[in-house]
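[job 0412] stage=complex_fold ligand=guanosine-5'-monophosphate status=START
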Amino acid sequence: MKPSASDMLLLIISSPSGAGKTTLCKRLLVEFGDLRFSVSHTTRAPRMTEVDGRDYHFVSRDEFHRMVAAGELAEWAEYAGNLYGTSLSEIERARTEGRRGVLFDVEYQGARQLRAVRPDVIGVFILPPSLAELERRLRARATDSDEAIRRRFEVAKRELGHYGLFDYVIVNDDVDTAYGELRAVVMAERAVRWRRAALAERLLAEGALDKR
Ligand code: 5GP
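[job 0412] stage=complex_fold status=DONE, emitting structure tokens
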């Protein structure tokens, strides 16, 4: 049976870049095979290890603007000079594939827009243990230029102020501990009463539950 739109877990994972979000998302997708990663569109150039269609759909600014004008994006934002957006078809595809959830890796403006169109989204914000550690991690990612790193660090510091948009905040100091918290959020959210209401009602209708 396919999950109804409201049974699906729409999970946003957001953080300043360098907080370790990508690693945590990858682990989550391995463990929860029924979660679908929402592949965003971006005008940013691919990094060395990135694959078009898997990590992002890499598009020109013209194509991105066309998608915005055509109403094909559920949300979009500019981040450090590049455009990023989630297409509506990513969410729809998860439903038609019968997945139990969608994982969105978006920054805070995207999180805010997704929440406006789907109030049932759950937002998780990943914090670095310190600013010094955040800067160190950004520099360790040797694929970015010095200028890109400096810009990302400035953006990251401003992004910390938006943690209030999210339901959960996880500190990524030790990655195993952070991951343990993240998977606990997924398990708990799946068991939230309203997400199980359709099943409970069906069982009630079958007379399998005692209504007294
Ligand atoms: P990066 O260039 O490091 O892959 O991503 C930069 C930022 O853009 C990250 O904070 C990431 O979460 C965000 N991002 C990636 N895809 C999307 C998207 O579809 N929409 C929005 N609003 N942000 C995104």
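The helical segments are 21-31, 61-69, 88-96, 108-117, 131-140, 146-159, 175-190, 193-205.
[job 0412] exit 0
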